[in-house]
TrEMBL record, chains A, B:
<dbReference type="InterPro" id="IPR023509">
    <property type="entry name" value="DTD-like_sf"/>
</dbReference>
<feature type="compositionally biased region" description="Basic and acidic residues">
    <location>
        <begin position="155"/>
        <end position="166"/>
    </location>
</feature>
<protein>
    <recommendedName>
        <fullName>D-aminoacyl-tRNA deacylase</fullName>
        <ecNumber>3.1.1.96</ecNumber>
    </recommendedName>
</protein>
<dbReference type="InterPro" id="IPR003732">
    <property type="entry name" value="Daa-tRNA_deacyls_DTD"/>
</dbReference>
<keyword id="KW-0694">RNA-binding</keyword>
<keyword id="KW-0963">Cytoplasm</keyword>
<keyword id="KW-0378">Hydrolase</keyword>
<comment type="similarity">
    <text>Belongs to the DTD family.</text>
</comment>
<feature type="compositionally biased region" description="Basic and acidic residues">
    <location>
        <begin position="177"/>
        <end position="188"/>
    </location>
</feature>
<dbReference type="GO" id="GO:0106026">
    <property type="term" value="F:Gly-tRNA(Ala) deacylase activity"/>
</dbReference>
<dbReference type="Pfam" id="PF02580">
    <property type="entry name" value="Tyr_Deacylase"/>
</dbReference>
<dbReference type="GO" id="GO:0000049">
    <property type="term" value="F:tRNA binding"/>
</dbReference>
<feature type="region of interest" description="Disordered">
    <location>
        <begin position="154"/>
        <end position="206"/>
    </location>
</feature>
<dbReference type="GO" id="GO:0051499">
    <property type="term" value="F:D-aminoacyl-tRNA deacylase activity"/>
</dbReference>
<dbReference type="GO" id="GO:0005737">
    <property type="term" value="C:cytoplasm"/>
</dbReference>
<keyword id="KW-0820">tRNA-binding</keyword>
Amino acid sequence: RFVNVSRITRKCKLGEEQVSSIGRGLCVLLGISVDDTPRDAEYIVRKILSLRLFEDESGRSWSRSVMDGNLEVLCVSQFTLQCVLKGNKPDFHCAMPAELAQPFYNSILEDMRSAYKPELVKDGKFGAFMQVHIQNDGPVTVELTSPSSLTDLKQMAKQEKQQQRKEKTRAKGPAESGREKGSQRSRQDPSASSGAEGDVSSEREP
Amino acid sequence: RFVNVSRITRKCKLGEEQVSSIGRGLCVLLGISVDDTPRDAEYIVRKILSLRLFEDESGRSWSRSVMDGNLEVLCVSQFTLQCVLKGNKPDFHCAMPAELAQPFYNSILEDMRSAYKPELVKDGKFGAFMQVHIQNDGPVTVELTSPSSLTDLKQMAKQEKQQQRKEKTRAKGPAESGREKGSQRSRQDPSASSGAEGDVSSEREP
């Protein structure tokens, strides 16, 4: 559910013996949570492939995705992203146990390969201790959180209710629908619209 | 508010001309949000220095912090961590504008240096375009989120009310206080106790 994406222009490699490596593309650290479902996997795969983190030929930032540019993806499992702190000690009981996380991780890779070009999707050794050499370009680092989880499901249920209420209101008259739309934004859902009409900062350089 | 921490055993360096570099320690990517306050900075500084991401002499994982081991910290500003997605395009209106974020970033560095050893805290060039070479050891990557923000403030207000209610209940009799304690856990606050009594997974290797 928590995914860390770094933009790579030159190189990202795994291990001293170079288990795996990519050139231009994305290095993805995948943190799989106990309550992740295929729906989360589907969301994450789609976002990784479609996220516009690269510039186009004219140098316009945030305009091209991995798929647009025929770029590579390197996926590494990273259960420590599911860490919660007990004081200053990390605790990982929210991470999916390895025996379940490994097939889940493999299915994410399979989905990504079949949605894109299999030869451009690289992976690490699941659960292995490795040195990951990331040459982060920018730097540009983005966190992705898939929408589902108990909290989010509750949130979604709430939003659905709001939607229903909105539709009722609309049936009576069109007033206020704009304002209500804004109130449905969820902090937990990074795919939710920012609500800002202007897009001033999106051309900003790191 | 969103902070990405990578464990480094060998090297992390900034830029081709090596603007800055560290050996064993933590590489910290700092995403400062529009609504961050000195309280967030204080929390983040404390957690970075005290997080137990390193092993001790006997090889016991998750037992030593940067401070315990006299290790280095490299801090890099990274506004892209504040990204929200508008479809597949990143939008950064939640990031603190550069003219405010720069002094905020500098104050975080100052706080960290005065809380620790100034010579062990390195930084990058604020807002500069750089190649960040991260040799992530494990890999071990952790996300830190400071507790404040509008949503969290609401959450805290709610918790305070619960606390008050609990204290009222306690005044009447001690029943149920344990159960209520559990219900105060917040998904947004990674420092919140996991609630699990066992700590089985915390010795797990990446």
